[in-house]
Amino acid sequence: xxxxxxxxSIFAVSVFAAGDANFEATQRELNIPAIIMFFIFxxxxxxxxxxxxxxxxxxxxFYTAGGGISGFQNGMAIAGDYMSAASFLGISGLVxxxxxxxxxxxxxxxxxxxxxxxxxAERLRNLGKFxxxxxxxxxxGQKEIRTLAAFGSLAVVTLYLIAQMVGSGKxxxxxxxxxxxxxVLLVGVMMIIYVTFGGMLxxxxxQIIKAVLLLSGVSFMGFMxxxxxxxxxxxxxxxxxxxxxxxxxxxxxxxxISDPISAISLGLALMLGTAGLPHxxxxxxxxxxxxxxRKSVVYATGFxxxxxxxxxxxxxxxxxxxxxxxGAQYFVDGKLFGGNxxxxxxxxxxxxxxxxxGFISAVAFATILAVVAGLTLAGASAISHDLYASxxxxxxxxxxxxxxxxxxxxxxxxxxxxLGIAFEQQNIAFMVGLAFAIAASANFPILFLSIxxxxxxxxxxxxxxxxxxxxxxxxxxxGPIVWVQILGNEEALxxxxxxxxxxxxxxxIAIWFFSITDKSQRAKDEEKAFEAQNIRAQTxxxxxxxxxx
Amino acid sequence: xxxxxxxxxENNPKYDELVSKKNSLGIKLGIFVLVMFYAYILTIAxxxxxxxxxxxDGVTTIAFPIALAILIISFLTTLVYVKxxxxxxxxxxxxxxxxxxxxx
Lengths: 549, 104
What we know:
The structure holds two protein chains of two kinds. Chain A is mostly helical. Chain A is built from 21 helices and two strands.
């Protein structure tokens, strides 16, 4: 079991190139301050869930918190979805391990945001109701498009969820000293409670609280680290170079991105994959209008950017402090206890003592819970809104739809726990890689073209979506990670770890070809319907309102 | 949306203005961000030694201020877009709304 934490989040797609980032789930004695902090957090969030449950009545409340989240709050929640345990532990661990390379991923993730803002955010808000599938299905065939996009969403959500479950189990083993199975079960139960009772309102507030705690926690750590160096970055960097075995090399890019094809493909996966993640896109429906949707992206970009900057300081701080006399206690047999991803956790102990260690541990765990809740809600919406209420039973009442979503949440929760336990010893690298590749190749092209291309037809979107999905899956399977590392073959049939460049291109070409060759009456009608859709996307006229859908 | 409304909005010059202004700003800023990001990624892919150049006599390399600059510029581009969109573009949208409110 290796590199688990690094795989927990978005940037994880490529982190497994990072060399030795072992996460050894050795147990240690119960971490009492962490457990107390954890129960305070759990108590507070259950209180929120209780409050949210009383306010959650309609389907709109359940899926989108009634559209009553402000731009600032939503920006915080989006930042929360981004600042997962892996962004925090993984990137700081990466900087601890190899210095500057960790920052490359941070930059890649942040740069996706302006692009989402210019291309998607306000149009999503203007066209959509509950899920991003609403947009693709706006003028195209409901049945085909919703079925395809719902399965795209579910594939992304499930793969991502398993990775989070396995990661959280391992994290809890190290942090709290609990058994792996109990840890996974605990996450599953908590998440089911948040989502079934509190819906999007509770999920969003859990995410916001976690974002605030995490930002405060890392700010404190960054402050403490810099205060040792008279708030001089150069002084910190000098000491880090002296302390690290690679010396000056940690100050510049190393070997993460080797060839241009991989670089471009990774860049595409980071950018477009983010724009195709159902649980992130869903956040644009919780705000009242396009104006708030735009604002939320500005706030999110600001918080995430700040977070990554502090993370860089924390990573360099970890190099200095963990390699000092005070840091010796965190090493077992010459290796960092719990693996390199625990660098920030150990640093928190050095700079803030037991209580702060407890705080950071609880926040790291809360982070997983919050992300898992968002994922589950996105998956449940795909089932209840896109499959059940739009395809299986178009006459469903709101009550029936909500009931189906709640059942879906419980099923997804159970599936997450079972698979989380089943996959404990598996390399989960390919699951996260696959989740991103699918999001970028199957979800993004359909979403993008349905908004921007008037000639897009149902046939083109349907066939192209399947082509994108299949290409991504096949290229990941025959690529270096699955074919060589998991299946144990000598050489990969497809040489690159990141299939996005090829699978995204294949999806776009297939959608284009099968759309322009579609001469049916339906295709003509769909083209005609584009103008009305475009007016709504541009102006918001006729868009779902803040409270009433 | 009613056909009449669609037609009225389509024929409203302010709608053309809105769409062209919005698209042109979005495309310009989008290309700017993409060029900036890929210039960075391709420098890493092809010539990472350049980024290892030290600043003055210290150990810090130019790679750090470059990463910092990209993070800050990304933030600023979103800010520029939203200022413009939430001001000028929303005003245009409200004007259009006034023009067509009899058929809405």
